[in-house]
Each structure stands twice: as C-alpha cells, then as structure tokens.
Amino acid sequence: MRDALGLVTKSAQQMVAATIRTVFAQPDPAAAREQWRRVADTFRPRFARVAELMDEAEADVLAYLTFPAAHWRQIWSNNPLERLNKEVKRRTDVVGIFPNTAAVVRLVGCVLAEQHDEWQAARRYFSADSIAKLTPDKEVAPLPLLAAN
After folding, report:
1. DSSP 3-state assignment of 136?
2. Is residue 98 very low, low, confident or very high in pLDDT (cuts 50, 70, 90)?
3. What's residue 124's pLDDT?
4. I need a labelling partner for 121 at 20 to 30 A (CA). Which of 18, 53, 56, 69 fits?
5. How far is the C-alpha of 69 from the C-alpha of 110, rounded, in Å?
6. Which has more pLDDT, 68 or 146?
7. Do both 47 and 83 map to the same domain?
C-alpha cells in the first residue's frame, strides 16, 4: 500500500487507498483476484505506475488467499511485525552504542524471546481449531509454553 501511495499525489492517496482496500473485502479468492485486476485496470489511464506495480505485486499481495478465510485478517496485515520491530528499536535505542556484536544479539534475542513468550501465553494469534483447518488429517494440540532458563 505504501509503495502504491508513494506513486500518486497527496490529493489522490485517499482515493487510491480506499480503492485498493476493496480487494480485501471480497468474500472468496476468485472475487479478490478479479477485484485486484479490476482495480489495476481502473488505475491504468490515470496512474499507470500504480497499475504496473499492482500487476507485479499481485501474487505476493494475494498470497493470503491460499489460507482458510478465518486466517485472512491476521495474514494480510504486517502490523504485528511492525510492532515487534518498533519494540526492538525502542529497546536498542536506550543502549545507544553496543560494545560488540554479541551484546546486540543478546539484547535483541531477549526481546524476541520475551515477545514469543507473550504471544504463547496471552495473545494466541491463531486458535488451535483454526490451525487444525490447515492440516485436516492431523490433530493439532496447543503449543506448550517454553520454560524460562
């Protein structure tokens, strides 16, 4: 979305964003792919670079459609990853200059382990039932919590 909005004027950004978001409101994969192409074709006369970008990015952006519909909302957004990167940045900015590479690895590793534990205990992103839809022939049990050393 950011790449597409960077190719249009400020005055057109809201319209372009709203039009692209219509793809994610589609009920099934076929409709989403059709809407993606329709949106790209709509942009061709006025925003040729955006249409070209959409043509190139279609497979990557619509990759979430291969998963069960219950997972789409979690998969199409990269907000959790951005939140994690923001937390790592916040923690490393406090230190400023690290004495060596091992110190960076230790700090970032601890931040990542802390986030992992938090997601394991409190913020289960996908339920066990939801994951079971990915592997219908196998029974999926909740993951055990990792014990702190």
Report:
1. coil
2. confident
3. 64
4. 69
5. 34
6. 68
7. no
Residues 7 and 53: beta-carbon distance below 8 Å: yes
Same domain, 83 and 119: yes
Give the residue numbers spanning the domain of 22. 2-66
CA–CA gap between residue 91 and residue 93 (Å, rounded): 6
Residue 122 φ/ψ, nearest 5 degrees: -110, -35
Cβ neighbours for 17, distance < 8 A, ≥ 6 positions apart: 1, 4, 5
Q: What is the pLDDT of residues 57-97, one digit of tens each?
A: 999 989 888 888 877 777 777 778 888 899 999 988 988 88
The whole-angstrom separation of Cα 41 and Cα 35 is 10
CB atoms within 10 A of CB 43: 23
Examine the fold and report which residue of 66, 94, 116 is the final residue of a domain before the chain moves on: 66
What is the token pair recorded at 64? Answer: 């979430």
Q: What is the DSSP letter of 125?
A: S
- Chain position carrying tokens 């219908």: 136
